[in-house]
Amino acid sequence: METPAIHRLIERHAAVRGDAVALGGDRCAVTYRDLNQRANLVARRLLAAGFRRGGHARVRTRRGVDLAVMLLAVLKAGGSYTWRAADADDEAAVSLAPAPGQRAWLTIDAPTLVEGEAHACPNLPILTRGSEVACVLPDADGSAFVLVPHATVTSLRCHTALGCGPWNGKPAALDLWAVLMAGGTAVVEERPAEVAAA
Fold first, then answer.
1. Superfamily grouping for domain 6-187
2. Which of 158, 156, 159, 168 has the alpha carbon at shortest distance from 198?
């Protein structure tokens, strides 16, 4: 049996228990339904901008609800991501790898991607296999990269109890996915992420 992709497990929670809180904290409470629909909207915007299945997105922003939406959207669009936490002066942005026939990366202002309402925005029909890459991590000195497939990440759901868990801001967002795939609440802290290479 094929290992499901990360976002498919989260979509199941959105369908069965959509009113459950997916992302919580002092200043937010985002349900699974809202998270899923917002990510569907952003995924469609990425595809409209030229992103394609198998593509790669470099995401630069602080940890928070918008980041969770953007990372989930990249997966729903059939791609993989690399995340770097933004410094205080950095502008949040998503850079898309050049599509065939293009030479340069396309950079999109992150707030533009996530703005607006996403009511009744259905899931995308893009097929993503468990063996496909979900995230790309640079090693300690940035000279090499580790490709992390969906199947590696989804194996974490077996080790996570349903409940709350902090999102600590590691660059792969594995702690975020582990909690969401289990149907729990990822606690979003209101401070910039401290990122260390995995």
1. ANL, N-terminal domain (3.40.50.12780)
2. 168
